[in-house]
């Protein structure tokens, strides 16, 4: 997949890539440090990394367990709790 395809795909699927059932991502605040990706035990988060266009995305939100590790590690404040009735589940269960 080339850069142009990545950009087009990112725009088309934007609505589904900014939140999991537990976490909201404000991509405008993301500083592309990739700490959240490293710390997530469920591989929920991914990257858009094309030239000047760099930020985290929600790659597979259904896998999110609500552990909040990504929120704690994000110094930029780009990740936050989402209002949700769902209860977090243990990682690995
Ligand atoms: S930890 Fe925060 S600033 Fe770093 S890549 Fe994740 S969302 Fe962006
Ligand atoms: S809450 Fe936990 S499982 Fe969900 S995206 Fe953040 S680190 Fe990953």
* Principal-axis shape: globular
Q: What is the count of helical runs?
A: 3
Beta strand %: 15-25%
Number of strands: 4
Distance between the ends: 34 Å
Overall number of structural domains: 1
Order of SSEs: HEHEEHE
Structural class: alpha+beta
Which range best describes the helical content: under 10%, 10-25%, 25-40%, 40-55%, 55-70% or over 70%? 10-25%
**Could you say what the CATH topology is called?**
Alpha-Beta Plaits
* Strand line-up across the major sheet: 1-4
Named CATH architecture: 2-Layer Sandwich
Estimate the mean pLDDT confidence: 84
Low-pLDDT parts are 8-15
Describe the fold and architecture.
Residues 8-15 have low confidence and may be disordered. A two-stranded antiparallel ribbon has the order 1-4. It contains 3 helices and 4 strands. The protein is of the alpha+beta class. Strand 2 and strand 3 (53-58) form a beta hairpin. Residues 30-36, 56, 73-74, 76, 78-79 line the site of one iron/sulfur cluster (SF4).
Task: Offer a few descriptive terms.
93 residues, alpha+beta, Alpha-Beta Plaits, two-stranded antiparallel ribbon, two-stranded antiparallel sheet, 22% helix, globular, binds iron/sulfur cluster
Summarize the entry for a quick read:
This protein is α+β, with helices and mostly antiparallel strands and 93 residues long. Helix content is 22%, strand content 19%.
Give the SSE map:
Elements: H1 3-12, E1 23-25, H2 35-39, E2 45-50, E3 53-58, H3 69-73, E4 79-81
Antiparallel strand pairs: 1-4, 2-3
Bound molecules: iron/sulfur cluster (2 copies).
The site of one iron/sulfur cluster has 13 residues, from helix 2.
